[in-house]
Amino acid sequence: MNLAEIGYVPDVSQDSSPRVVKLGDILPVFSNFDTVLTSVKSYPLWPALIREALLDKAISGISCEDSEIDLLWEEWCLKNEVDPSQPKYEGLSVPEMRLAASRERRVEIFKEKTFSKHLPEYFRARKGDLDRVTLEVVQFHHHAVAEEALFRCRGGEQILEVAAHELAHRDGGEPPMKRVGPIGIGRLGAGLASLVTGSQAGAILGPKKVGQFHVVVRIIEIQNSALEGRTRQRLLEELLNQWIEQQISAMTGRPPKPIKLQEEVAPNSANIPLTKTPPALLS
User: What is the pTM of this model?
Assistant: First the structure.
């Protein structure tokens, strides 16, 4: 929505209004390569420019089919609100616009050709973060009380919540109960992760000493990741980012920066309320 659509059109007819800056006003600043480089290095966009320049170099030998370029051009025009019959965008020529339209696809081709062979091994290394689990965790103060709750639940006598409530008087009060997840198994603390790994949904596990508590856990749901769809594309992007960081490190001499790995938000198929995981239960 623009300002006119909400009924506000600023009055710029007064002499005190700022003069409109034209492209010719700033071009002298970029009169030669040295001034361009000096200026750009002082801008926040410098790291992004290096990244994109590396990508341009990487995809320089990659092309798309003419039919694919036409489709990409239509999508690019729609995305950037450009009229294909009279294309105008940020001062670019039509060939430059068409090149921009195919660039993302060429990067995708580069990622696939370069990093797909590394995906199985990388997926195995990342699977602990990609597999997600939802837990019910009860934190008992006394080991014997935690064992009694576990015995009652495994024998089918009671559910964990009821057992914890009935044993509260022996534990010095109502034991804290937390619902954890969905969360990557690799993000759980070492104690919980070792307890959960290899188990099935519905299992009741413990007791396990975690911090000051003796923990009993019920696995509500396990969502196993697979090397397909969004997970595959995300891992390809991570491998690309790691490669770019290595290239920048080699160019600048600084150590590579760690790549921030984002957890994928999985569908909440069990309609379980999502809660913030207590820090003591995380690694």
Answer: 0.67
| Res 254 pLDDT > 90 | no
- CA–CA distance from 247 to each of 60, 254, 256, 263 (Å)? 16, 11, 9, 25
Rounded Cα distance between 101 and 93, Å, is: 12
Residue 185 CA to residue 204 CA, distance in Å, equals 16
If you write DSSP's letter for every residue of 169-216 in order, what string do you get? GGTTSPPPEEEEEEEEGGGB-HHHHHHHTT--TT-EEEEEEETTEEEE
- Tell me which H or E stretch contains 219: strand 213-223
Domains of the chain from N-terminus onward: 35-116 (no CATH), 132-223 (3.10.50.40)
Beta strands across the sheet bearing 132-140: 177-184, 132-140, 213-223, 204-210
**% of the chain residues with pLDDT over 70:** 80
Interatomic CA distance for residues 208 and 173, integer angstroms? 19
